[in-house]
Write a structure and sequence with these properties.
By secondary structure, the protein is mainly alpha-helical. It contains 9 helices and 2 strands, in the order βαααααβαααα. Strands 1-2 form a two-stranded antiparallel ribbon. The protein is globular and about 45 Å long. The termini are close together.
Length: 210
């Protein structure tokens, strides 16, 4: 089983739908420890991405991901734009020229995406950021690859790891981003960036595992 170009396009469409559905939820999470704009920013960014879909429908997966990245960079406000833009651009570089991805290709692309986010945001595990969801997810994928698991099983385990990472941000004191200004008061709130990262990875599982 592999991930086709049409699967990749379907994932992006699913992301747009999921982020639109969760717009208010992400706004509420961000209102507690940020600027209350994360949900609106992510929704706006993926709405802009959807307008580019007709132009990239016949392109390779790398071009699709890079187009998503460039669009998010130019349309998403706050920290989300540069971080999610980098995420998709780095994934796109690893998927350049490919019309389908096997599990190893996806692991390579996601690993590069997460490394790009870490480099761009200077955040590490435990800082209460999107990295707390992304790092466990990519680690779970690598482990699944080593154990020769199916794509479906790997995606399921990766998404579960992202969910646990997201939930684990709640008790943390933020060390990066807008939330870090609150100090101890940032504890007790789930990180909105980790939440949107989980939603994007869950969209991949929901789209590709079937």
């Amino acid at each position: 089983m592999s991930i086709s170009r049409d699967d990749a396009l379907e994932w992006i469409k699913t992301c747009a739908g999921v982020l639109a559905e969760n717009r208010e939820y992400l706004i509420q999470l961000d209102a507690a420890i940020g600027d209350a704009d994360h949900g609106a920013n992510m929704d706006r960014g993926f709405r802009a991405v959807m307008t580019k879909m007709p132009d990239i429908a016949d392109k390779d997966i790398g071009t699709i991901f890079k187009t998503v990245g460039m669009t998010l960079l130019s349309t998403v406000g706050g920290a989300g734009g540069p971080l999610y833009g980098t995420f998709f651009l780095q994934a796109g570089m690893k998927a350049a020229g490919k019309m389908e991805l096997n599990l190893e290709d996806w692991v390579t692309a996601l690993d590069a995406a997460v490394s790009g986010v870490i480099m761009r945001g200077k955040a590490e595990l435990g800082d209460k950021t999107m990295v707390d969801a992304l790092t466990p997810a990519v680690n779970a994928l690598k482990q699944a690859l080593e154990q020769n698991e199916s794509i479906k099983q790997a995606l399921t385990e990766s998404t579960e790891a992202a969910k646990q990472g997201m939930e684990a941000t709640t008790p943390l004191v933020a060390r990066k981003g807008r939330a870090s200004y609150l100090g101890e008061r940032s504890a007790g709130h789930q990180d909105p960036g980790a939440t949107s990262s989980y939603l994007i990875l869950k969209a991949a599982m929901d789209t590709w595992a079937n």
